[in-house]
Design brief:
alpha/beta, globular, seven-stranded mixed sheet, Rossmann fold, about 240 residues, disordered C terminus, binds iron/sulfur cluster
Amino acid sequence: MVMDFSTTLKDKLVNATPVETLQAIAAAYPGKVVFSTSFGWEDQVISHMIFKNNIPIKVFTLETGRLFTETYYVWNRTLEMYQQPILAHYPDQALLEEMVSTKGPNSFYDSVENRKQCCGIRKLEPLSRALKGNAVWITGIRAEQSLNRHDMRAVEWDEQNKLIKYHPIFSWSLEDVKAYIQENNIPYNPLHDRGFPSIGCAPCTRAVQPDEDFRAGRWWWEDSSKRECGLHTHNEVVEK
Ligand code: SF4
């Protein structure tokens, strides 16, 4: 089991730019590197880096069926702009039909248990399928996003999915992200300009006030300590 990048690869990553790190990782794990996008600001930066530089990393998204119209808009714009595939992973049809048939389309508002069941069916199960057989999972996580993520590092071992997670813009500030988007004319979700720093499913995301936490608009009706959906739980740290 590979728990960390090799010493040779680590040497290449020292002082490398995010694009150079993505190129080096793709070369070290041919055909086994995936990037998950939900079309937020950070993800659009990484999609741009991958697509513009033709880095052989598979890009996928989780089509939960409950995304914002604006998210579908930026998804389409991204396809038009880069002309490169973004693989859509859908929930298992039988699991989804069983949940919605018995509990209705909005069961997630009723209890944390129901919300976790919905996230499990619409996100986690498709995610595990998307990651299966790969060695490295690239994400757009940044250090300053949410309390739970403060003790994370740029490279981690994901025990649940048995692969290395790498966050190429981990140290970037939001201002860095916005500046990169502007400089490179990258399409982005218009909801970001309407108070949505973090954008998930439409029924579970609201705008936040300037003084609120980054993820305060996600599952806002729940206790804040329970608000991660399970996609990015804290993992074993293997390197800073
Ligand atoms: Fe379901 Fe909401 Fe989770 Fe989306 S964010 S999968 S709608 S509970």
